[in-house]
Write a structure and sequence with these properties.
About 50% of the residues lie in helices and about 30% in strands. With about 160 residues, the protein is of the alpha+beta class. It has one domain: PH-domain like, CATH 2.30.29. Strands 1-2-3-4 form a 4-stranded antiparallel β-sheet. It has a 3-stranded antiparallel β-sheet with strand order 5-6-7. Strand 2 and strand 3 form a beta hairpin. Helix 2 runs antiparallel to helix 3. It is elongated, with a radius of gyration of 20 Å.
């Protein structure tokens, strides 16, 4: 997969995706609901199949988050790569970045340690890339700022 999106003279500096705590939360919640539904079905001999389907859907959602979203910081650009039933690739050269915003939901930040990192360029009203539900978004922003400064200084030499 990496060979498709990385050019031969490009090096991946940081590779990450959706926070494991975030996707793990949905898997854990799905397992709780699934086992709760199975226990209710066994003891009360009733139809709790909707609860079982909900549990399976939450488990699938947790795995989907881990398998579909990939984020890369290379020595030349930022890459957002989504692949599931279709692929979506967005990359931005460091020179084109105007704003980097961290967005954290209170509950997500406190309980799951995750948030979103939005990257904007000039010319459009919305963010071109949003890294959703990443672990330590402030740390990634700091590293992104360091890489961006280094790349800009090297390009001026």
């Amino acid at each position: 997969m990496k060979n498709k999106i990385i050019s031969p003279n490009e090096k991946i500096l940081i590779e990450f995706g959706v926070a494991k705590t975030y996707s793990g939360f949905w898997i854990f919640l799905g397992l709780l609901i699934l086992f709760g539904g199975l226990i209710l079905t066994l003891f009360f001999i009733s139809d709790f199949w909707l609860i079982i389907i909900l549990g399976l859907a939450l488990i699938a959602y947790g795995f989907y988050l881990r398998l579909a979203y990939f984020y890369f910081l290379t020595n030349k650009r930022i890459i957002f790569y989504y692949r599931f039933f279709h692929t979506h690739l967005v990359s931005i050269d460091y020179q084109k970045i105007t704003d980097i915003n961290v967005k954290e939901n209170f509950l997500e930040r406190i309980f799951l340690g995750s948030g979103n990192l939005a990257i904007n360029t000039a010319g459009t009203p919305k963010e071109e890339i949003v890294f959703y539900h990443i672990a330590n978004p402030h740390l990634i922003k700091r590293k992104l700022d360091e890489i961006k400064i280094g790349v800009l200084q090297n390009s001026k030499l």
